[in-house]
Automatic annotation (TrEMBL):
Keywords: Cell membrane, Cell shape, Membrane, Peptidoglycan synthesis, Transmembrane, Transmembrane helix. This is Murein biosynthesis integral membrane protein MurJ. It is a multi-pass membrane protein. GO terms for cellular component: plasma membrane. The keyword Transmembrane applies. PANTHER family: LIPID II FLIPPASE MURJ. It is found in: Cell membrane. InterPro entries: Lipid_II_flippase_MurJ/MviN, MurJ. GO terms for molecular function: lipid-linked peptidoglycan transporter activity. GO terms for biological process: lipid translocation; peptidoglycan biosynthetic process; regulation of cell shape. The lineage of its organism: Bacteria, Bacillati, Actinomycetota, Actinomycetes, Micrococcales. The keyword Phosphoprotein does not apply. The chain crosses the membrane at residues 54-75, 87-110, 122-146, 158-181, 201-224, 245-266, 286-307, 328-350, 362-384, 396-419, 431-451, 463-488, 500-524.
Length: 542
């Protein structure tokens, strides 16, 4: 296997392991604080806040400006050591400043994402946020160190370090359960020492979450010596060339900003359901489950296709690009339809992993199903968007992202208008998740039309027909899987009794759905099945 192949395999394996341990982390956290309740939603909102702040300061700076500079500096005779020292110093100063400002503005920041929380719940979220916001600094340093390691061809630590975060967090949450007890969903009188939440408990939970981020950053610092560079504080920032490439950040930053504004609106809308219905915590747990098949499929199948599309686009071979788009959509669609079908059928057992009660799993399952509606459109969107990138066009993706964001906000507004009453509030979060998926479908239709205007006919008819065939094959597979679920007693049976049985239920339902799906496709002699088998054999052979 080539050096590039080994590096790709190492990164892919690290990404998969990180996703799996991240799922375990969320399962243990759910055992500690539950999934449906004011306390769990308060912590989730607080712990998600550092990610939101970090995204704002990093996407326009790190991705579009700093990373290309690191790569360029690394090609210098001195390996870019002096410039990288200046960069790390500048990055640390910016991150410290951003962290301090975020902590000073903690009340309005939490309110922006959770304005419909009750006053006590909002106060608890703010208390958690003080312990979580230092993550902003460590997230930033983790990215700076990791991108520098990658630029110096030290790929492993950046991909595998998040596992350390997950292991530390899992261990810490287990200690929290042992000391304070589990399923602490109550909110009443959290301010007092004898209430449901007190300062030691808040500090322990928030501190554990932050300690995991510190640990993953420390791992990269430990491997820094492999770069062959020495770091020292250097505040002489003039002349390192950041201003010259600053304009590159424009469209990328604006695209991120649209996503953040949409997320902010969605989060503040569903915060009104917190308490007895699925809200913030269920939303992020469902998204985590949704992203597992997406990440694995795109990492193993979609990324190589993107490389091939980029090569053909650079050579001006538009006909080959069009063929690449069709092949990629059909192969990704084959797998994504299977994944979406299996997880939809197993939605209640899958949700039971992240909840402590069966009725909570039943309430959370529709949110997961709402996201899964968008799995295939999101996979197709990956191919279309990357094709624009292959031709050096980042502006067009921004505009169809704005279109998708506007639709998501519109769907969230309609959902709130329809389901704001106490009797229907349980439908609010699932409806917004489904609206997110429908907006992704509309986005990919628009993006495909725009790409067709650029490249000419894309041959999407054959790809759409293939997706229809996959969907038809998924119907008997879904019926078989659901039949197993019903025969096991459905939500009242063993499959949702506890977390261990839920794992076994997911495996069983997934195996049944996959077997029937493959058999039906084989009976119809689907050419994509043969292509996927050949691709898998080639990968295993290497």
């Amino acid at each position: 296997m080539s050096s590039l192949g080994r590096s790709s395999a190492l990164i892919a394996a690290g990404t998969l392991a990180s996703r799996v341990t991240g799922l375990v982390r969320s399962i243990v956290l759910a055992s500690a604080i539950g999934a449906i309740g004011q306390a769990s939603d308060a912590f989730t909102a607080a712990n998600q806040l550092p990610n939101n702040v970090y995204m704002v300061i990093s996407t326009g700076i790190l991705t579009a400006v700093i990373v290309p500079q690191i790569v360029a500096w690394s090609a210098r005779d001195d390996g870019g050591g002096s410039h990288i020292s200046k960069l790390m110093t500048l990055g640390a100063v910016v991150l410290v400043g951003a962290t301090v400002v975020a902590m000073l503005l903690v009340w309005p920041l939490v309110w922006l994402y959770s304005s419909r929380f009750s006053p006590d719940q909002l106060a608890l979220a703010v208390a958690f946020a003080y312990w979580c916001l230092p993550q902003v600094f460590f997230y930033g340093m983790f990215a700076l160190l990791g991108e520098t390691l990658n630029a110096r061809r030290v790929f492993g630590p950046y991909a595998w370090a998040p596992i350390v975060n997950n292991v530390v967090s899992i261990s810490g949450f287990l200690v929290f359960i042992a000391v304070f007890g589990g399923d602490r969903t109550a909110l009443s009188e959290w301010q007092t020492a004898d209430g449901a939440w007190n300062l030691p408990m808040i500090a322990a939970l928030g501190g554990i979450a932050t300690l995991g981020i510190v640990a993953q950053t420390a791992v990269l610092a430990f491997f820094w010596r492999r770069t062959g560079l020495s770091l020292r504080p250097d505040f002489q920032w003039r002349g390192i060339g950041l201003r010259a490439v600053g304009t590159l950040a424009g469209w990328t930053f604006l695209m991120m900003l649209v996503g953040q504004l949409v997320s902010m609106y969605q989060q503040t809308t569903i915060s009104g359901a917190s308490g007895d219905d699925a809200a913030t915590t269920v939303w992020f747990n469902a998204w985590l489950v949704f992203m597992l098949p997406y990440s694995v499929i795109v990492m193993s199948i979609g990324t190589p296709y993107f490389t091939q599309i980029s090569e053909h686009a650079a050579a001006g071979r538009d006909d080959d690009v069009r063929r690449d788009i069709g092949r990629a959509i059909r192969i990704l669609g084959l797998l994504c339809v299977l994944a979406a079908t299996a997880v939809m059928v197993a939605a209640v057992p899958a949700s039971r992993l992240f909840t402590n009660q069966t009725d909570h799993a039943v309430a959370a399952a529709p949110v997961l199903v709402g996201f899964l509606i968008g799995l295939v459109p999101l996979a197709v969107q990956f191919v279309i968007q990357r094709t624009f990138y292959a031709y050096g066009d980042t502006r067009t993706p921004f505009w169809f992202t704005v279109f998708q964001g506007a639709l998501s906000v519109g769907f969230a507004t309609i959902a709130f208008a329809l389901f704001r009453s106490e009797e229907l509030l349980g439908l609010l979060t699932p409806a917004i998740a489904a609206g997110q998926s429908l907006s992704s479908l509309a986005q990919v239709i628009l993006a495909s039309w725009l790409l067709r205007r650029r490249l000419g006919p894309l041959g999407m008819g054959s790809s759409i027909w293939a997706l229809v065939r996959f969907t038809l094959a998924a119907l008997p597979a879904a019926a078989a899987g659901y039949g197993v679920y019903v025969l096991a007693g459905a939500s009242e049976g063993w499959m949702a009794a506890d977390k261990l049985w839920a794992v076994l239920a997911c495996l069983l339902i997934g195996a049944v759905v996959a077997a029937v799906y493959v058999v039906v496709l084989a009976l119809f002699r689907a050419p994509e099945l043969k292509a996927l088998t050949a691709l898998a054999r080639g990968r295993l052979g290497r």
